[in-house]
Amino acid sequence: EVQLLESGGGLVQPGGSLRLSCAASGFTFNGFAMSWVRQAPGKGLEWVSVIYSGGSSTYYTDSVKGRFTISRDNSKNTLYLQMNSLRVEDTAVYYCVKTMGVIDFDYWGQGTLVTVSS
Amino acid sequence: QTVVTQEPSLTVSPGGTVTLTCASSTGAVTSGYYPNWFQQKPGQAPRSLIYSTSNKQSWTPARFSGSLLGDKAALTLSGVQPEDEAEYYCLLYYGGARVFGGGTKLTVL
Lengths: 118, 109
What we know:
The complex is a heterodimer.
Chain A: E1 3-7, E2 10-12, E3 18-25, E4 34-39, E5 45-51, E6 58-60, E7 68-73, E8 78-83, E9 92-99, E10 105-108, E11 112-116
Parallel strand pairs in A: 2-11
Antiparallel strand pairs in A: 1-3, 3-8, 4-5, 4-9, 5-6, 7-8, 9-10, 9-11
Chain B: E1 4-6, E2 9-12, E3 17-24, E4 36-40, E5 47-51, E6 55-56, E7 64-69, E8 72-78, E9 86-94, E10 97-100, E11 104-108
Parallel strand pairs in B: 2-11
Antiparallel strand pairs in B: 1-3, 3-8, 4-5, 4-9, 5-6, 7-8, 9-10, 9-11
């Protein structure tokens, strides 16, 4: 059974940093690209970033470029999102999402809430 | 700034058929955009329904189908059930980046 368990969310002040983790199990982690998707309170889904299986290729939505860094540790079956220079508008539930190869999504975690507020 | 557009809301009667669409500001949506469709109910994580335009996940009910309709991607629900009331999102692939549509709130009434 595929499981994705996010952690690391919490309350942080504007300008602060936070690192999210996603522990994966039930599949061959190093064979699949992984994404982060977020959802602000009462709003729609927003794709944030993707990292391909080897970790060498990454992409970001424009609003987080230069501030967020996606990474993975295939030896630990864990996906990360380092978030720096956080803004109030980064407040959201952050979901870890598995792809079926590179492009198509299949499994979602339950999400972790990040609140950026003073 | 690429924008993906969905109908904000639709209403359908139980047992009826409804089609949700997904348009791209860059032009016609083709299979090369790998349209994905997701369902989200209040308080829950999204759930994948359709990938690569028309392929169903193993858990996707048969009444859901995906296609290309004109210059858009489409999700059709045939024989709608009350439990299909939810928010539906499409996702398009832009050669690296991905963009979600704004979502369609489907009401079953």
